[in-house]
Amino acid sequence: MMEWDKQHQQKEQEIEGNGNGNGGVGFVKVMTDEQLETLRKQIAVYATICEQLVEMHKNLTAQQDLAGVRMGNLYCDPLMTSVGHKITARQRWTPTPVQLQILEQLFDQGNGTPSKQKIKEITSELSQHGQISETNVYNWFQNRRARSKRKQQNATSNNAESEVETEVDSPKDKKKGPQDQLLQSQQNTSAQRAEDLCFQNPEMSSDLHFLD
Amino acid sequence: MMEWDKQHQQKEQEIEGNGNGNGGVGFVKVMTDEQLETLRKQIAVYATICEQLVEMHKNLTAQQDLAGVRMGNLYCDPLMTSVGHKITARQRWTPTPVQLQILEQLFDQGNGTPSKQKIKEITSELSQHGQISETNVYNWFQNRRARSKRKQQNATSNNAESEVETEVDSPKDKKKGPQDQLLQSQQNTSAQRAEDLCFQNPEMSSDLHFLD
DNA sequence: CTTTTATGAATGAAGG
DNA sequence: CCTTCATTCATAAAAG
Residue A41: which domain range? Predict the structure, then answer.
C-alpha cells in the first residue's frame, strides 16, 4: 500500500544566487514547516472531498445498476499508483544513544517534574551530544512518563482480572492493541484514497505527482 | 475572497537549525519556483478532479431524476459521522477536515476572543459538517491560541548557535507570515466551495479552481 | 520491498 | 489563560 506520506527527505535547496547585485537583497522562496503543514492539510481536504464524491458516485452508480443503465467503467484504479510521493517528510528527532542514556538517567532520578527551567538546562546539556531542542526534551519526558505509567497499569491488571473492560490486548503485553489499528485506519485511508482516485483525464494523470 | 494574488512577497524565514555548536550550519527550508509550480499543479489537479466528480454526480443525479428514483441528498462527511458509531465509539472529538478549515479560518480572522455567543454560532455552523459541541469549539480555540503562542516562542529562539543559552523570546513575531495568508486563504476558499459541492451544488465549478 | 513495532510529535480535554 | 495528561497520529527503525 503506497503511503501517501511516505518519507521523503526534503532536499535542502541551495539558495540560488539571485543574480541582482542589489546588495544581495534577493528573495528566496522559503517555506516553513508550518506552511508545509498547511499545504498538507489543504491537500488532505481535497483528498477527503474526492473520497466523498467518489462515494456518492458509487452510490448513484449502484442505483443505476439496478435500473440497468450502467454508464461504464469510469474508474481506473491502478493507473495512479505511482503518485505517492510526498511534499515533505516531517522529520523527527531521534535521540543519540548518549542523549538517551542521559535522559533515561534523569528520568530515573525521580524528577518526575521536569520544570521549564529544568528543561532548558537539560536541553543545553544534551545539545553537546547532538542536535536537540527543548521541545524534544519536553516530549520525551511526557512520553516516557505516560508510557511508563501505562505499562505499569497494564501489569497491574494481572491481579484483579476484571474482564474485558480494558481490552486486554495481547499475551505479549504490547503497547498497541488491535483497537488502535482500527481507529487509525479510518484516517489514513481518507488521505490515501485520493491516490487511487484516478480519473480518465489524460492531462491529469500525467501531472499528478509530487516533487521528487 | 481570492487572495491568491494579494500576497506575493516572501518572508525570509528563520533558520530551522537549532543546530548548535556544530559549525552553525543551518539549513533553510527552501522551495524553488519549480517546486511551487508543481504544487500548484497538484492542487489544481485536485480541483479538477473534484469538478469532474461533481459533474458526474450531476449527470447521474439528473438521470435518476428522470427515472423518478431520486435518492435525495447523500450524506456528507462520511468520515466521522457514519463510521463513528461502532460499538467502541470514539471518546474524543476529532474535527473533520472541513471543520478544521473553517476553524482555522476563523482563527486567522483575528478575533482572539471567541465570545460565548460567538461560540454558539460557530458550533451551530460546524455542526452541519459533523458532530461537534460548544465545548469542542471552546477547547479548540484555547488550544490553538496557546500552541500558536508557544510555537512562535520556540521558533524565535532559533538564533543562537555559538553560544549556549540565550534566553530570548521578546520579539512579537506574528505567527503567520504573508505566505501563510496566501496559502490559508486559497485553501479556505477551496474548502468552503468544495463543501457546498457535497450537495449537488450546480455553481461550484466556478470557484473550485484557483492558482490560475 | 512490505509489514510490524517503537517512539517522537500532535492534539482534545481537564485542572488550576 | 496556562499547564498537564491521555490518546492518537505518523514515522524511523526493526523484523520478515
Answer: 31-68
